[in-house]
Amino acid sequence: MDFLKNQIHINLDVGEGIVDETQMFSKVSAVNIACGGHAGDDFTIRSAINFALENQNQIGLHPSYQDRENFGRLSLQLPLDELIAQWYGQYELFIKNLNKENATLNHIKPHGALYNDLLHNQNLAKAFVKSLSFFSQPLIVYTMYGSALHKEAKAANFEVQFEAFLDRSYLSSLKLTPRSMKGAVLEEPTEVMTQLNHLKRNKGLYSLTNTWIPIKAQTYCLHSDHSNTLAILNYLHLNFRP
Description:
By secondary structure, the protein is of the alpha/beta class.
């Protein structure tokens, strides 16, 4: 079993068809599998599920706004009923493939602009939590501590696991830095290690403007959609010590 995997709960976004993720599964605790909104189809979902099973990863689904053209990174201003219908379609696709592989669902983590909007939009968070009635089994919701989704999920008696990002910088407002801004994505292993050490040992991190912000986190996210993720995981494996 990989040392890093035993020491820290890292979750990884997978099944997005951008890089070869196969060597990453052994180094993380959980995976969030794209389920047809921003990326993903039957083949990629089942492949990711099988890799997760081989590596004893907790399996989660990674729904988004239905927007492949923009990789789910633009907010869609749509009626809530229409958004719920979009999410149901993604849930159905995912659960169909999960059942074919006799796998178990552990959690759900929204993607991209949907994730960000669910941090602050209470009505959207209510609709998202309402959509979770689709699932017959209990599942964990990944989100940031204090977010609108955190509050709505707890009110509906869902277990919530608080998340922080290892490869994204933050603004002093605790929002993720927009990807259009320089410094939004951390791709150097040493930068990610510094962020992880702050989060684990000091319970917070420095914003892009060098303001200290406290953050509660139980799981730490890496994205697989840039070329340096495997190098980051290997570096953390060799150098991180609790």
